[in-house]
Amino acid sequence: MKANFFGAVILCALSLTQGSEYKYTYDNNETCIDVKMDVMFTLSNGNETVKFDGNNFTVTSGDCATLGEYQAVLHLKNSNEDLLTLTFNAQTDLSVNMSSMFTFGPFEFFPGTPIATAISLLDTGDLKLGEDTKLYRCESSQRMTLTGKLEGITFTMYMDMSNVQIQAFNIKNGTLSSDVFVCSADQMTSVAQETTKATSEPTKPTTEPSASNVTTVGPSNVTTVGPSNVTTEGPTTAPTSMAPTTSPVPSFPPISTYEVMENSTACLIMEGSFQLKVTYTTRDNTTTNTVVNVPVSSNVTVTGTCASGNDNSSSLTITPKDGEIKSLTFNFEIMNGKSNIISWFADVKIPDAMESEINETVIQNVDLLSPKLYYKCKKEGNFSGNTLAFMYNYLQVQAFNVENGNFSKYGYDCAADAPDEPAPGKPPVETYFASDGKKNCVVFKGGIQFHIPYNSTKGNTVAVILVPTNANFSGECDTTLNGLYTQELTISFYETWELKMYFSSNKKQNKTDLLTADEGVGNYDISQIELTFDYNNNLFMNVDDSIVGRTETVTTNQTFLSTSSSKSYMCNKDTTFALENGLSMVTTNLQFQAFRTTNTTDFDAATECAGDEETNSIVPIAVGAALAGLVIIVLIAYLIGRKRSRSGYEQV
Description:
single chain, mainly beta, Porin, 4 domains, 14-stranded mixed beta sheet, 3 helices, 8% helix
């Protein structure tokens, strides 16, 4: 059993170049974990970067490895109450790895970040510290990368270390080992001056240490500070009980609906496909994890409480009729006008666990946005505690204001479902085409964006939505619109958004026989633009509850940009197309051609818009002006020359 001791000692230097030293001690003040390094942290949210060094951290608590234990932990905290956790794990061959976790509030580092909860960044690869009986030393620069995602924002932190000295196991009487494990970077560059004094074979225990080879470090009931210091003449195999195991991960169960009932009507609804991940210690002292499915609603009993009147809290409890999960409870509360999961609890029984019953209450504020609407998340996600993690897929939940036993008509999307938008600025220029399998009858190239006015919680505003690079497109080469022979291009993006552009000939459509491009189209133009979109809360910032999730279709029957069938139309300057309800579509670097007969995406000669023609005329005008100026200069020079010549003759 691990013993936690508080009253840690921290020795921090005054400057980064001198490094930071973090020590954790037993209650007799003998060091059991010692970390010393020059360290710089670089934290980024993808747009902004913040740097800080290790001198701001102090040790708050820790967990030393005692007899038979293979893990030690050191907890550090800075002035912002951010937590840096360093975990040291002895592997099956008794080599040691160090993992890192940084827990912080993004709003403390990036002002304006609309996130009030904390996030934990986990390292993408552990730092290898060599053998458990040796002091690890590395003067060369090393980097650990930590990442995490919250509300659609990916956070990354680089932990750049140099002049590192670490020991977390087998520190005898508070004194670091004289045997040194030198990192490979130092060995390759010949920087390291220390060499190991131990044999080349790693020390490995063959039996459990007896009382005679256990070093006490205080009271008689406190024993070793590392797994073992017993050595053998040669390599030995590690105990099979130490091998880490992981149970196969089952697929998510079918989507099911769990309802809290009041007067035979659902008043709280939670829907989705759910699992619990359990991390535990087996009876042979191996740390492992397993994943168990939350049974569908027909195999559980659902109870709970619903908010009524002025109540601002509710709860839902799922009690399976059999299986490993004994109960699963979620507590909801309205805070600052928003619905939140404020905590959840699970009780699980794992037969091969050292302590078969595992339960945990996780205090975790999950913002479900408006209490008037339901919250939905199509992508997989999880709410994680220390030993339990609730994993979901296709989650939908409404804990308040459920009417007639159903979800509200519209809902808020989770940040994970946010579409991948292009970077702010000019939209990406892409090429789209409509094809009938034989020819690309319509080709359209350009960057497209929409200006959409809407009601937000902060007043009326306008969203600028750019068409992304991964848009799908299709079309129709033979159709009609208002009696005219027409071709159609459809661009689909952001799951539910659809832009349709119609290109119509000025010749009437024959009702019995489709006109073909070969028969002569004459002039054509963009005869109609139609946009179908929804007020997604991830695209429309602070969108009002009254319109969130609502789908609209706007159009225009105005004709635009006419040209002949043998030409394309081109306009490099921004071109604005007015749609209904104050919406507009703006294109840049636009070129299109309809009623084509080839299967390429190459354009024929272009009819240029007035704006481009004005730009193109600047060069010839400038050249003409320069030539005119040159003629004037030559003429003046000629006249001056003649005057001087005549004056000379008079003098003679």
